Amino acid sequence: MGSNQLKTQLATMRDALFKQGFLDEQFIQLEELQDDANPNFVEEVVTLFFRDSVRLINSVEQALEKNPPEFDKLDKYMHQFKGSSSSIGAAKVKSETSLFREYCKQGNAEG
Amino acid sequence: MESIISSRNNGFPAGLRVLVVDDDQVWLKVLERMLIKCSYEVTTCCLAREALEVLRKKKDGFDIVISDVNMPDMDGFKLLELVGLEMNLPVIMMSVDGETSRVMKGVQHGACDYLLKPVRMKELQNIWQHVFRKKINKPKNGDGHESNDDMEKARNGLDELEDWYLINGGDLNLSKKRKDNENHEYDNQDNSDPSVAKKARVVWSVELHKKFLDALNQIGFDSKVGPKKILDLMNVPWLTRENVASHLQKYRLYLSRLQKQNEPKTSFCSTRQSEITSKDSPKSFDLHDSMMKQQNQTASCSFRYSSKEVLIQDMAPEILEDNSMFSFSPSTKCTKVLNSDISYPLKSTCGSRSGITNSFISPAIDGNFTPFQSQKQSRGEETSMLQFIRQPKEDQDMQRHGYLPLPSQQSHVQADSSLYASSVNHGIYIRESDKLHSSTIQSVCVEYKSSCVNDEHLTASHTDLFSIEASEDTSSPKDFVDQTTTNVSSNMEDFSLDEHLEVRQFHPIQDYTCTENFRLDDIEVFDFPGMDLVTELPSHSDYSYDLLDYPVKDQGLFIA
């Protein structure tokens, strides 16, 4: 019973993520890739993504601390971030990174 | 390549060997999974250098490469270029951003496709088409026929070819011209990278091509059709005469390629390429070892001679059999082998041709056959050299370029084989001569290995060549034959050996030495599955002519 409840909760959360635009259809693709041969595929990928993200965000912070911020570096990091976020269908992250890159190109430190 | 063919039988494109290069671990994982789902064989690399290493180590280990554009250690474009040059594999680029300029750059560097991340299963499922396209553009495989779709494919292949030229920095007059002429079509598009000397070109859509064909049919294709006339008939305002001209040329090449595909012999070289090369190859002979050029080399000779040779070619298979039987039977070997050898001089043009194809074959053959084969070969070369000397025509020149390089390549083989022969020894003459052979040839080998072109050598060989020419001239072909039938003088052998030497040394004079390797690579890399093909190889017909005795020789003379 408890597990059922958890499952519904999970499904709702997942739906919410889609509705709020955090995830896009790429995530569904990932889910489709998961099969008996790779039962934890989505989890593995998402874990990888988060691990990468932590590393990237650290780098981004470092680049931001410099004065003036190193825009090409930031841009590079953001590009990577965008790449990996697109792979798991993290739509919101992806659009944010796009925005970030725009600011980088303009040399806008505020963005 | 072979594996493609085989895997195709059990359900191509399943089993397509894909190398994925991406610095993004997440993507790497996802792509791997996706490709496996497509039932492809996947290898992943997270660094471009690593990928290159893998590719170099396992040449022919992959059918297609998918590479990210942005990588820390090497620009994806750079990788793309290297892979295109070294392995001639289709490369798909992928990136998150689909800026037109980026995509354009990718295509300019020779990417066969540019995928935008997130890459979907559907797109990956379809990547086999690039492998297939590459394959049908290899003249070997006669899959492509008439339909517009195939035409399209062929055209794409051509474009790739030209891209390739451009990437190599080779001046392809053709594409240069076109580029200039088509500039105005795409003026408003920004060509981000001026260093890559290529601009967008007229897209020959199916409809446009249809118009073109209609116009062509109206005029009649057999005669020399002028692009101007076609253009008028096509009635497309924005099209220029040059556009039509280049398309016409492509179309011609395409047709001739189709034609050639039906003949076993010419499967080596597509005429499409040969036409291009016959114009441009001299310029683009820099050292990149890739298929195209090999083919060009071959093409340049076969193209010119094709008309004469078709007949001979057709006879090939049976003849080869004869031939091989021949050299296998030890009792007759001694005399007969020589016999056949000596009749070479009679054959002039065919002879030289035979030299070429012959050398194609020998690497593929193993076992007992090899020594004799290569011996003959060497003689074939010699004779053709002689012929060349006798008729120093333009054509012959061409031919020479095409085939000269081979001997040096073969020198290894020959040296080995002659040694082998001498150890097995089938007769005194041969033995002696072979010893000579091996020693001289080996020395030549060494020279070649060092690969420095010694000026003294050159001059020496020059003079030698001429002296031989003289002696050759004095003795008529008939004399040779007589000698053969009565007894084979080791003199004769020595004589040819000398020639051999000189011929070899002579090569470096031309700048085309580089081709040697290519030719052989060609064989190994591209789908000549051993003996089967060998039997198809026409060149042997020449031999058989010889073996079949004298009337044929006459014919040979006649052709000369």
TrEMBL record, chain A:
Please tell me where this protein is predominantly located. cytoplasm
Claim: tRNA processing is one of the keywords in the record: no
What are the GO MF terms of this UniProt record?
histidine phosphotransfer kinase activity; protein histidine kinase binding
Q: Name its cellular compartments.
A: Cytoplasm, Cytosol; Nucleus
What keywords does the record list, in alphabetical order? Cytokinin signaling pathway, Cytoplasm, Nucleus, Phosphoprotein, Two-component regulatory system
The processes (GO biological process) annotated in the record are: cytokinin-activated signaling pathway; phosphorelay signal transduction system
Which GO terms of the cellular component aspect does the record hold?
A: cytosol; nucleus
Residue ranges of every copy of the HPt domain listed in the record: 38-111
Residues annotated as carrying Phosphohistidine in the record are: 79
- What Pfam family does this protein match (any one)? Hpt
Q: What does this protein do?
A: Functions as a two-component phosphorelay mediators between cytokinin sensor histidine kinases and response regulators (B-type ARRs). Plays an important role in propagating cytokinin signal transduction.
Query: Can you say what this protein is called?
Result: Histidine-containing phosphotransfer protein
TrEMBL record, chain B:
Q: Which GO terms describe its cellular component?
A: nucleus
Locations listed in the record: Nucleus
Record domain Response regulatory: where: 17-132
Mind listing the GO biological process terms from this record?
cytokinin-activated signaling pathway; phosphorelay signal transduction system
| Source domain of life | Eukaryota
Q: What is its main location?
A: nucleus
Q: Which Pfam families match?
A: Myb_DNA-binding (PF00249), Response_reg (PF00072)
Modification 4-aspartylphosphate, positions: 68
Enumerate the PROSITE patterns for this protein: RESPONSE_REGULATORY
Which GO molecular function terms does the record list?
A: DNA binding; DNA-binding transcription factor activity
Keyword list (alphabetical) reads: Activator, DNA-binding, Nucleus, Phosphoprotein, Transcription, Transcription regulation, Two-component regulatory system
Q: What does this protein do?
A: Transcriptional activator that binds specific DNA sequence.
NCBIfam families from the entry? myb_SHAQKYF
Tell me the PANTHER family matching this sequence. Answer: TWO-COMPONENT RESPONSE REGULATOR, TWO-COMPONENT RESPONSE REGULATOR ARR11
Entry protein name: Two-component response regulator
Originating organism: Stephania yunnanensis
